[in-house]
Structure prediction request, 298 residues.
Amino acid sequence: MLSLLSAAAAQVSAQGAPIHWLDLGLTRGIALGSFTLRWYSLAYLAGIVLAYWHTSRTLKHAGAPMAQRHADDLFFYCTLGVILGGRLGYAAFYAPQLLTHPQDLIKLWEGGMSFHGGLIGCTLAMAWVSWRGQLNFIRVCDYVAVAVPFGLLFGRVANFVNGELWGRPAGPDVPWAMIFPDGGPLARHPSQLYEAGLEGLVLLIVLMLLFWTTRVRFRPGLLTGVFVGGYGVARFFVEYYREPDAQLEEFAARTGLSMGQWLTVPMILLGLALIVIALVRRPLGAAPAGMAMADRAA
Prediction:
């Protein structure tokens, strides 16, 4: 995907013409007779499977907060939480008319999923599995949070491949600006790729390095805080380049921020709070300060 965009950008620089999404040879799915398997569906599936694989791998190391059977339960309930929460969140935050037309609400194949709604659904699923299994909820969140960017990366790339959720009009100083088939004649920012890079790839690398090369997993809440706050900052920034949903353009103009930015503000605050609390408290397995001093004196 990145090589395609790079080749297209090189062509633009040589010819001085904007990139046309249609010229990239992308398709919106795999045709299976009368049915088309959407890339977006495959992105969700790939993200969930990779998250399950990575979480299962982490459980083989000392200090894990749950057993493999709990990861199996999380795989099932988080899948439901992401799908149901994502769709209901989209209806609540972006398309309230769907709430009064249940027959349209269930048409997942027509698109319309909210990350914030999916995050709420997944959080409720983790809370249920933690309560039922008598697990430490925040540590379960830490282990799952590390792998969530897999889904964000694939999901945003799928948005680009589908030619949807394009960015705002870009000036002539943006050689990679692109004309999308449903975005009018103006060349626009490929904001889907900005999100794939920041919310997906960068956040994934940061969390993986923290988990596998440090001992921050023994500071409950820190990895969750980095994910929640990091996503919030990345999304808030990219929203300056992403075109607001048509039905929310007036809302963005009136409030000065898009709906996506307003929804990230509490995430940023929550992430910062979790990080501070995790750093102030003693890590798991560490002896109290007084006891440690007594041991050294002895």
